[in-house]
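Summary: Need help interpreting a holo structure output

Steps to reproduce:
1. Submit the protein chain below together with the SMILES for zinc ion.
2. Request a joint structure prediction with the ligand placed.
3. Inspect the structure token block that comes back.

Expected: a single structure record containing both the chain and the bound molecule.
Actual: see attached output.

Input attached:
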Amino acid sequence: MEKAVSNHSPFQGFWVWKVSSLPKVQVFLWQCCHQSIPTREVLAARGMDIETLCPLCRSAPETIMHLLRDCPSSKDFWNSSPPPPVDPDCFYGSNLMDWLKLNCHSSHCSPIHNIDWKIIFPIGIWNLWLHRNAVVFNNGRTRGSVRTNTISQAMEFAFLGLNMQHPASRHITLVKWTKPPLNWYKVNSDGSSLGNPGLAGAGGLIRDATGKWIKGYARAIGVTTSVAAELWALRDGIRLCIALKLQAVVFELDAKLVVDMLKKEDRSSNSNDNLVEDCKRGLKEIPMVLVQHCYRESNRCADALARLGAHLPQDFVVFLDPPLEVSPFLDADATDTLFNRSVAAVSSV
Ligand SMILES: [Zn+2]
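--- attached output ---
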């Protein structure tokens, strides 16, 4: 049985950010390494009163290792022809951390369309997790099998990320979060709306010039549009900076439309006017201000806080310390992790 990893034990999983995969899959790997995938066994270990048996086979506790490898349904996936190009004793005999690392660093090529195993594997475990959630939460309704989804996503990733024979159609830029200048602070804010309009949250965080966490915040908004959620997130960030009497602040958000709204003087009437005006007024109260657009890939701490906000039991929370949901992204930013961003070559983004 796996042991929960304490927050204080030295963590050896930073390699996950270098794995050649989609950002959401890298995050999933990071959570696997931290034993924080909410399988039934993990939830029970955290004190939740819950049945620990695997919901798929009901024959063993649902540990992360069971879910991703040892459950009969996962074995079916791994053994479906062709099997992993890794020694079976190693594949089925190693512990979770070794297993993840071994497969994510494999130099073998899979016979499946000649795609590298290190590309197929992480996408495979991600799809096993999605499938499990579909069984638990959606009565098993899924689009496609784990195998077909994994192969098509791995092919797409290999094509977009690695196939340089088509440089004219897409190219990959590397993006990362950057620290503000000396003596400046940076606010990253984001809004999240599940559907547009839909149940929305807002959130953000303030870091100093060394990248240190100053404060974070999240807000439950109720049903609104994504633009309104972005504006709420910015407004809360501005208010917090004013309360903290910060003198020089860079505000960074991934909604280009909102950045443009703040820079424009025009007063074309729309439903967000009050929020826009409130943000503009607040920005004037801070002596030195810069508002800039960033890519989504470098705004993931704020995104995590916004998603947290959508499900808050209260209206607004200020976090003195980073919540667990944000930690992986904070670590990634602090270690200057570069993320792939696929950009259309002709786009003006
Ligand atoms: Zn099972």
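--- end attachment ---

Reviewer comment: The chain has two domains: 13-163, 185-338. Residues 1-8, 163-168 have pLDDT under 50 and may be disordered.
Status: needs-info
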